[in-house]
Amino acid sequence: MTREDAITRARAYFDEGGFEVDLSRRVAIPTESKNSERAQEMRAYLDGEMRRELEAMDYDCVLLGDSDTVGMSILVASRIEDASRPTVLTYGHGDVIDGMDPSWEEGLSPWEVTRRGDRIYGRGAADNKGQHTINTGALSCVLETRGRLGFNSKILIETGEEIGSPGLRDLCAAHRDLLSADVLIGSDGPRIRQARPSIVMGTRGNLNFALEVDLREGGHHSGNWGGILANPGVILAHALTSIISSNGHVHVDGIKPPSIPESVRTALSDVRLESGDDGPTIDGEWGESGLSTTERVLAWNTFEILAMTAGDPDRPVNAVPPRAVAHCQIRYVVGRDPAEFLPALRAHLDDHGFEQVRIVPRKDAAFAATRLDPEHPWAQWAAASVELTLGMKPDLIPNAGGSLPNDVFTETLGMPTLWVPHSYASCSQHAPNEHLLGPLVRQGLEIMTGLFWDIGESGTPEA
User: What is the tally of structural domains in the chain?
Assistant: First the structure.
């Protein structure tokens, strides 16, 4: 039996409906991690649905952590064939964001898989149940074809990624031996281009915080007090414009990376970001000057205002508001210590006369920045495998624009990381009508089956 036989089997798994059957069972389990009452569903997903599949593939499974608390447990499955062969860790997350049931199109439900043309709808289809179903399906195709993997496989599925992976780091630190591997190969997020596969080797980090101006108790009539009471909304607006310009240029050097490494520039030189059919139009003049659109998202730091209020926007009254707040975020790449960001902002605000603006850190959903050099042997090896399967070179992306708990694998567990996404930019991830594209699922099965087959052959990079 050959590599092509395994890939043919993977195509049949999709063409004959096996993938949709498996995904349907998983989507039907409402694993909303922002809902504290979903602990039972999380257990059902890990210790029921996924354990059954993986034990049928001769994996030894163990549930770790607090399964009575949402987001605090993981399933680890191990299949050890030969200690002299490479060990690959594969990641997925079984939790999803809120279903948003009433907002889906008529005839669609977040908890049912529905096929309409090339689109496969369901909450978690793209993020992340569909993606790790592709990967476990590919592993199964290699096993059924070869009779063995030819390498050692470990699979980690967590249940708290959508709330910042609160239990993951401690569990991985406590079970380093169980989770030790030569490389992580996972799938999450979208491709950079719909028509071309991506291999992503890290993630941007994110730091959330608030900027707040709180001047007094209660609002005061604007007719009697307007013009003699400082308005916190005005002060905050001017503070924000001192940080970022009207075209998105950040003025605070301390929150920008010092430079873009040449290997990163080279890897991104022929990569073009795509919005997709349903995506927004890219604003070409927004952001850091002198950078390409791709570099602004994948190789630079950004300052974003996520939400802001002064008074009550839903019920405005004729009063000078007492307080204004802006919820902000810095997305950042490797190159500068994120511990420097808020002190740099504090110094900037003070230098510009905005001592009244308080910086309030937030701890939720904070991920560190990670990046694997595009010239790393595992990256080059994986790119060659994908090209052998599809006859086209993939986009090699040093890090994604979004964030994942990738530092758990690079720092806590100490391994290189490769992410092969099977979704696309307009998949409605985190929104109603979330979906995968059938052709990308089929191609993803081909890619992953080829990758896993090749790891079982000689010539795999050494750890």
Answer: 2
